[in-house]
Amino acid sequence: MAESSHAVIALQISDLIRDIQESPHTDVDAVLSELAESGVNYIDTAQHAGITIASRDGKLHTAAATSEYPVLLDKFQQRCGEGPCLTAAWEQHITKIDDIEAEQRWPAYCRDTREETPIRSIMAFQLYADHQTMGALNFYAERPYAFDADAVEAGLIVATHAALAWNLLRRDQQFRSALASRDIIGQAKGMLMERFKIDAVQAFEVLKRLSQNSNTPLVDVAHDIVTADRASDVVDN
């Protein structure tokens, strides 16, 4: 792949990131799917792509996939507790399998992949990793030695921009979650203030003590109060 082609990849994915930044309501699943599809389009030898999300407890989730194979291979990784995508996410930034038939790492995963799919080459890139979860962008081909140095370079460009987009999406989700939590806590405080004739500080103190006494997140306590109050209104009416 020529250097100009790499520039085109970077430009087009940068446009996608700009769209994310400018959009007031971003469909996370749609963006991740577009990133996976873009990777297959940009890397000529890649036939399938997927984005894997994993947690420290071993659970895997396929956030996006261009076919059934990325989903199936993620199931193999969860079942076997090993695989190139997990290694790329937790241990290395890039992991590559040139030929699934000859690969000595991850024997159970390679056996299942060899016996149940046509996939023979895999290339995985870390998108992010924190204390709880990780993400990896994965490319698959149905012939061995499909990913040469140029494919790795193109994959790095796609993965780097995908990581930027992913971080934007995660921050947006966290912001929306924080707004929703603040709203539900505000509603619960208002209900306590009205019912018990207390001020906002006292109402928040009640919520905090309920949270501590029940070892329940404060937002969940607030949600229970709002839900119970609404239910009682329905019964009264």
TrEMBL record:
It comes from the Bacteria. Keywords: Kinase, Transcription, Transcription regulation, Transferase. One of its GO terms (molecular function) is RNA binding. Pfam families: ANTAR, GAF_2. Residues 165-226 form the ANTAR domain. InterPro entries: ANTAR (IPR005561), CheY-like_superfamily (IPR011006), GAF (IPR003018), GAF-like_dom_sf (IPR029016), GAF_ANTAR (IPR012074), WH-like_DNA-bd_sf (IPR036388). This is ANTAR domain-containing protein.
